[in-house]
Amino acid sequence: QVQLQESGPGLVKPSQTLSLTCTVSGGSISSGGYYWSWIRQHPGKGLEWIGYIYYSGSTYYNPSLKSRFTISVDKSKNQFSLKLSSVTAADTAVYYCARAAGSNYGYFDYWGQGTLVTVSS
Amino acid sequence: EIVMTQSPATLSVSPGERATLSCRASQSVSSNLAWYQQKPGQAPRLLIYGVSTRATGIPARFSGSGSGTEFTLTISSLQSEDFAVYYCQQYNNWPRGTFGQGTKVEIK
């Protein structure tokens, strides 16, 4: 059973860089066949995908978001990470990591529990 | 960007009744459509992918149908644990998948 777990600070000051890590267990990122992704949900709102990464390091980002996001992978630790620079209050949200599956890696079959990130001074 | 529109925003249903949720795409997404269930304080859970294929462990009372731009999630007989928010998601133009705004299924 694949499990994902987000970790990182719950509180970040405006203009700082947010760093989150997703640890995958029950499966290896290096085995391929899946993209690994970050999705966020603003308080009381819907879901917004941020980006994807493959084990090779290939990434895709949501073009609707400003290019402040960086996703990376650490195969040795079976983790992938999200960095968001120059955060503002508008980045306050629950951040989820998820596995993108299917023949076209389109749907998310496993999710982390989510981590609430609040941007405030 | 493909816009996904769900209706209604809120659906009030009595336990044991049938619930029908709709999702419309601004352009054809073929069969690349998934549904998720989200309960308060929890992550979304994949229910359906490929329009009508139930994910592992999902009860048979959940079914999906549709094609092109019009899709439906049906819960045949609502159980207490089914009251939640449901999201549709298109992944036809991957990686630019988009979610609907959600339908809340509440107890009538």
List segments of chain B where confidence is low: pLDDT < 50 over at least 5 consecutive residues.
none
Largest interface: A-B, 24 and 25 residues
Q: What is the beta-strand fraction of chain A?
A: over 45%
Structural class of chain A: mainly beta
The tally of strands of chain A reads: 11
Straight-line distance between termini of chain A: 39 Å
- Tally of strands of chain B: 11
Q: Which overall shape of chain A is indicated by the principal axes computed on the Cα atoms?
A: globular
Distance between the termini of chain B: 35 Å
Instruction: Please estimate the helix content of chain A.
Output: under 10%
Structural class of chain B: mainly beta
Mean pLDDT of chain A: 94
User: Major β-sheet of chain A, in short?
Assistant: 7 strands, mixed
Keywords:
heterodimer, A: 121 residues, mainly beta, 7-stranded mixed sheet, 4-stranded antiparallel sheet, 52% strand, B: 108 residues, globular
3D structure, described in words:
The complex is a heterodimer of chains A (121) and B (108). Chain A has 121 residues and is mainly β. Chain A is built from no helices and eleven strands. Chain A has strands at 3-7, 11-12, 18-25, 35-41, 47-53, 59-61, 69-74, 79-84, 93-101, 107-111, 115-119. In chain A, the strands form two sheets. In chain A, strands 2, 4, 5, 6, 9, 10 and 11 form a seven-stranded mixed beta sheet that branches. Chain A has a four-stranded antiparallel beta sheet with strand order 1-3-8-7, with no helix packed on it. In chain A, strand 4 and strand 5 (47-53) form a beta hairpin. Chain A starts with a strand and ends with a strand. In chain A, 37% of the residues are buried. Chain B has 108 residues and is mainly β. Chain B has strands spanning 4-7, 10-13, 19-25, 33-38, 45-49, 53-54, 62-67, 70-75, 85-90, 98-99, 103-107. In chain B, the strands form two sheets. In chain B, strands 2, 4, 5, 6, 9, 10 and 11 form a seven-stranded mixed beta sheet that branches. Chain B is globular. The A-B interface holds A 35, 46-49, 51-52, 60, 62-64, 96, 98, 102, 104-109, 111-114 and B 1, 32, 34, 36, 42-46, 49-50, 55, 87, 89, 91-92, 94-102.
